[in-house]
């Protein structure tokens, strides 16, 4: 699934190579070479996907990600030379959807982008696409949530996490299962990514947050 991608990378040669691969696959490319330009282009172009380098001048990618997540749930793939799990965890806690470590194959990056966009738009259901609990309504066609009839912006990961819990009501789902199912990764002994997203979900659910129950030492459970 092609669309409009905002490519944020301070090294021109890397931008050119990535842009060539994505354009050949039908994507529309918008480029930025630093964090400040990235925010400007984001406001101008409303991209379908952001590929975001972490190490950049003026404003790094993590700050850009943090700012964008205050306003939008657009899918974000982080690019970085860092490979430590702690860096990945921080990126995911800020709301990133995927993570690619340099050096990487542009072909693999394109495949990851298409896979992410497929996950974001799949599971369309012509009937029964509204799931309700309390004053919350989830629409699986638009992947949006309403609380008391008002729209609430969820990031792709927050939406997928809530939907997984709701569709497995009354079942306790371990943290490592949530990591594997939602992020497609596993951090041994690391649960902050899941806990951070649950905390944000509860804040957005407001008075309905009590439906998500913490099972100490195990994971989480959705109770209707």
From TrEMBL:
Keyword Transcription regulation attached: yes
Domain OmpR/PhoB-type stretches: 128-224
Sites bearing 4-aspartylphosphate, chain numbering: 53
SUPFAM superfamilies: CheY-like
Keywords: DNA-binding, Phosphoprotein, Transcription, Transcription regulation, Two-component regulatory system
Annotated DNA-binding residue span(s): 128-224
Name of the featured protein: Response regulator transcription factor
